[in-house]
Amino acid sequence: MLKSQEDEVIPQNWYNIVPDLPEPLPPPRSDDDQNSSIELLNRIIPKELLRQEFTFNRYERIPDEVREKYEMIGRPTPLLRAVNLEKLLGYSGKIFYKYEGATITGSHKINTAIPQAYYAREEGISEVVTETGAGQWGTATALASALYGLKSKVFMVRVSFDQKPMRKAIMNVYGTEVVPSPSSETSYGRSVLSQDRNHPGSLGIAISEAVEYALDTGSSYMLGSVMNSVITHQSIIGLETRKQLEIMGEQPDVMVGCVGGGSNFSGFVFPFVGESRNIEMIASTAIEVPKFRDGEYKYDFIDSAGILPRLRMYSLGAGFVPDRIYAGGLRYHGAAPALSLLVKRGTITHDEVHENEVIDALKIFSRTQGIIAAPESGHAIASAIRYIRSNKESRKTIVINISGHGLMDLGIFSKRVT
Amino acid sequence: MNIIPYFTLGFPDDGTLQAAVRSAAENGIRMIELGFPSQDPKYDGPGIRKTHAGNRASMDAFDPSILSILREHGISYYALLYYSEIHDSLDRKLSRLKELGFSGIILPDLLIDFFGESREVILHIQAQSLELIPFFTQATPDAVISDVSQMTSSWIYYGLQPSTGIIVPLDLASVTQRVKALLPGRDVVYGFGIRGTEDIKMLRSMGAYGAAVGSLFVKYLGSGDVESISRILSEMEVAASA
User: Fold this and answer.
1) How far is B199 from B206, CA to CA, in rounded Å?
2) Contacts of A339 by beta carbon, 8 Å cutoff, 6+ apart
3) Do A38 and B162 touch (CB under 8 A)?
4) Is the CB of A26 less than 8 angstroms away from the CB of B171?
5) Which residues on chain B are in Cβ contact (under 8 Å) with A28?
6) Where in chain A is the domain with CATH 3.40.50.1100?
7) Which of A314, A393, A398, B4 is the most exposed place for a label (fewest CB within 10 A)?
8) Contact B142 A35 (CB under 8 A)
9) What average pLDDT does the structure give for chain B?
10) Over 60: is that where the pLDDT of A4 sits?
11) Which fold has domain A73-107+229-414?
């Protein structure tokens, strides 16, 4: 049973945008004439999660136990007005931010890790495996699996593994085994290492390793982003935001978030997409990973090894290896299909930010609002500041999703990119 | 309830396909789907993909006796094609289908890959006196189902799974509710992943107008085992009418 205040804001159901999209979402593709990579998902994903992946149900009930865990990890997360930032920028409108960094694991990723671990336990699964880029998803998986008594393993993109030893330490404390990817533990990892022993890794490679490990060991694969079911779980961000704005008597005119695979952004804005009033939705990406500008809207693999089905999305190519930018969570080559579709149609616009501008935005936000946001979230802040500087007199209400805190990423401030 | 077999023209060879079609006709089917081979059967699973691979049959080159068998038995036949393969010569292809006696056409990729032009294409097909059988999936948005169904009056093809012949978990009770709410009074044929008589009984209890069955037959066609196809169709017909 939740406390009354939380009970009012934490929704009873997640929201799935698929039945409300303006056109059909292209299905996943499997071009193998022998075995379907779509059917292969049955072997590595809990049945309930897979049902949610392909459902047309607009609302999916959040199990009571999951709602209770949501409260335990800090939901509802705060929605606050950024008064000091408004003053600093001389903005005549209002700026709000939804702070997902307030969860125990410090990011939005726990919103889907908890239900995925819950469904795994409900189906008698004893071990889970996944990949992580910046470490936020790995941390969320580590905690969720600990809460449900599951053994867990995380393939961590090597560049992040090297840059962020504390992330690894946290996962270890929660009881998770962490290995750098590419690793010598999978045949795909070994094949990558055989070509480049110092390969920095990528999310696509780490996903491939985790999926291969799941297939080989019978463990369950945890989905970190991109997939519909994950975005459905992340809708809790937008649903809470809507309720909190309603309580405050506000309505958003502009919503800004950062995009790696697209789950925090989609979860934040999708509950607002069907609203009759016009809301500008801005997806902020790293200029070093220009998926919406230079990427092609096409069928492409989720993972680098091509084990999983192909999805139609904006993609820079499954083999894309981005620069070693600090925002590891934004290094993914593609973006969620429903988000990609809405970008293609122009419902959602996009903006690209360089790391230097991100560092400046993070400093501004920390000195005005006190929060050191994650480098990924720094892109959202930077895009919002850009918007405000170009629309100072607009008096619009802007809501930024701060997808995580940056207390594990302070190294970014000693870096200045030229 | 109708059992609607699906066969890809030209697979595995004219003789085996002719025997399979004849056995289907003798088992009392009233409708059939005939697929034209595609270079890129993008939304098909491994079973049906095998029937397209290296298959050289086309609208102008396939065994016409198959259609004669169907006409003899008064069976309505529907063409299944990917729109991506006919849009460059749409008028010629539609007129050929009409000439061959097809009652309607199913284009599984039309609403997915050509959504922007789908309305115009549907009207164009109807102007050629062919029925466009709307093809919906679990991922078809509610508003699209409502709009497209209102533009048409035929039966509707509803794909239950993400591609043909594969199975992922599904809540059939929710499907029934959705279909009743969005397609009141329409005849709905369910396809994709129909694997046996239990599925047929389930669909019958849902009030289905028909069940499309294709992937299940591929291995029997491949080995020339028409007898098994006949047995399966016979069992399904019993389950459909029980």
Assistant:
1) 11
2) A231, A259, A262, A265, A266, A283, A313, A348
3) yes
4) no
5) 162-163
6) 12-66+109-221, 73-107+229-414
7) A393
8) no
9) 95
10) no
11) Rossmann fold (3.40.50)
